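Figure 2 data, in text form.
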Amino acid sequence: MSGEAIKNVGVIGAGRMGQPIIGHLAKKGFSVHVHDIDAAKRGAAQERGGKWSADVNALAKTCEAILICVGYDRELRELLSAKGILNHVQRDAIIAVLSTVHPDTVRELARRAKARGVHVVDATMCRGAWAADAGTLLSFVAGPADIVARLRPVLGAFSTDIVPTGDIGSAQVAKAANNMVMWACLVANHEGLVLAHRYGLDVEAMRKALLTTHAANAGLENWGKNSMAWADDDMEIVHAMAKEKGLPLRQAEVVQEICRWLKPVRFQLEQYGKKKTRRRALRKKTRR
């Protein structure tokens, strides 16, 4: 299989990011095999051109490349455990981790897969769900150059920019850096616009003006679109990585705390900073 063009691509995880990826791959002529633990996603996956596979092991046997879009480290570990798909993946197949996880998780799984003749790389995605819909994602990809080269046409089906980052795990580092800046910008956008709002300025006019200055950022350009679904999880990974390196990230700590209480009232500037909202977020943080 080494060096041959990839024809069969598996997508494990047909959620908000996985669904548009399925459609882009099918439009590019790949045979796309899809699995998700939620069978209710079958219809949408098939409408986009995916072939539903109720048995994830059957998918693993069929595909030369498998894209994993699960949510958490533990799900990824279970999927690639001794009882998971590694017993069924074709030799020399590529497993690309699109999920945002700790770099050490990918490195560990790559070592485990290598013993079975399987390549695990990380290929993290940036720019958000609206870029997934448009097929304009940025993909950081980490792994041996020849494996990355084989995978590039697959990533190119849904990414307009593909940036190699080096050794396995480094794409996760790049994504962590992206997430730190992204969430900090989202918080700063809220605080800048709410200040303008409280002083009676037209918020939309202010937003458009800021996009012409050094304050411009993608979160401001796409104001109102971010669900903040993964803010807390993203920042937990950042803090775990920083702790391992003995690196204090003071702003990141504050950004995570703000994101926790901001999420329920995001983009509702009249709610920003209200004590009741902050108390609810504090209670949530205590229960974690």
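Caption note: The beta strands are 8-12, 31-35, 51-52, 65-68, 94-97, 119-126, 137-142, 159-166.
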